[in-house]
Amino acid sequence: MFAYVARQAIYNIDKRVFAYELLFRDGDSNCFPDMSPDEATSNMIATSHLSVGIDDITFNKPAFINFHRDTLLYRFPSTLDPLNVVIEIVETVDVDDELVQACRHIRNLGYQLALDDYDFGPRWDVFLPFIDYIKIEVEELEKHGDELDSKIRQLTDHGIKIIAEKVETHEQFERFRAMGVKLFQGYFLARPEMVRHRDLNASLHSVSELVGLSHSPNFDVKEVSKIIERDVGLAYKLMRFVNNPLVNKRQQIESLQHALNYMGHIEIKKFIALLALANLRGEKPGELLTQSLVRARFCSLMSIDLNLPENPPSSFLLGLFSMLDALLDTPMESLVSKLPVGAELQDALCHKNRDSNMGLQLRACYAFEEANWDEIDYIATDFELTSDRMYTLYYEAMHWAQNMSSSVIE
């Protein structure tokens, strides 16, 4: 069990999540905390603020974890499951025979190994026969110009999988994918992609109607029922949503009207907005929707702790629509002008008032995604919440999103 942990996704060539890199606040430079194996297995950080297991935030995806030299040599927590963990050797380690032998031993225990921030330097050559992954930053890749193709091929011919780090644009993703890179880490998925001749009118029209229903202080449940009854797909997804154990732990819901009556106005509004976003996803990666759900739930939970009104569910909508530009490959300013939401919500989505209540909620989402621990502390203080509470809410949001995404992603 660990104290504060953040995660960053690693994507495959299909832009699906392959693994997560875990970043530990308690460790130097976000590495695995320096503690004895006994502590790591029995009661790790028992006196700490919050305990979270690796599986609780990777959801059965592999976890890439940075390790310092001393941890690899003396304090390696060998009870971590080798089927779920990839050991990253950080670039700052002093390479000598002792470290190489320790890494060979760890590899022989069944763990996969990765070199972090690889720079093609000769000091790493001794590791290449038993390394599974090499992580290279885009800036480093771009230094090598015409030689890059052959350098990548030399590594992949050894059976090593390359992970391009700090991939910030779709153009970078496509360029390095063409060179044989198979895995990617960075924020490129959250950026709008330049797409020509995309007609948004029809999509935005239906979304606008649904968001209008969601953002209205009152609406007629019978009218909602009529809309859903006309669409078998909507009705099916509603039934899946309401019978999810995180939504309904008490009884089986068997009719559409029963579902609408059971959920109540606020939850219906959230579902409608969620479904509107899911229908816009098209061919975009499911992780975009899942991350939108994490943000939606996290903002909603923060708003409850801050005693903000839940009807309409503005904080939920803030998080849910915060990646709308990436889903539709259109600047956010153009999109929000077509959505019937309030000015504060529009400004927060367009980053026009980052210090407003909603602006801070969105900043908190970014801070967790980027492992910006100081920013998390700052926002917690501003909201008069403890950092412990913020972490608790975020981990709850991740679990909720993981379960909810199965209800709306086919």
Provide mean pLDDT, rounded. 80
CATH class of the largest domain, named Mainly Alpha
Task: Output the helix-strand order.
Answer: EEHHEHEHEEHHEHEHHHHHHHHHHHH
Stretches where pLDDT is under 50 for at least 5 consecutive residues are 36-51, 195-203
Short recap of the structure:
With 410 residues, this protein is α/β, with parallel strands linked by helices. 49% of the residues lie in helices and 10% in strands. Mean pLDDT is 80; it is low at 36-51 and 195-203.
What does this structure look like?
The chain is α/β, with parallel strands linked by helices. The chain folds into two domains: 5-190, TIM Barrel (Alpha-Beta Barrel); 201-408, Hypothetical protein af1432 (Orthogonal Bundle). The chain is 49% helix and 10% strand. It is built from 19 helices and eight strands. It has helices spanning 37-41, 54-58, 69-73, 97-108, 138-142, 148-156, 170-178, 201-215, 221-229, 232-242, 256-280, 286-305, 314-320, 324-328, 332-336, 343-349, 357-369, 373-382, 387-408, and strands at residues 5-12, 17-24, 63-67, 85-89, 112-115, 133-137, 161-165, 183-185. The chain has an eight-stranded mixed β-barrel with strand order 1-2-3-4-5-6-7-8. Helix 7 links the parallel strand 7 (161-165) and strand 8. Helix 8 (201-215) packs across helix 11 and helix 13 runs parallel beside helix 16 (343-349). The two termini are 33 Å apart. The relative contact order is 0.09. The model is unreliable at 36-51 and 195-203 (pLDDT under 50).
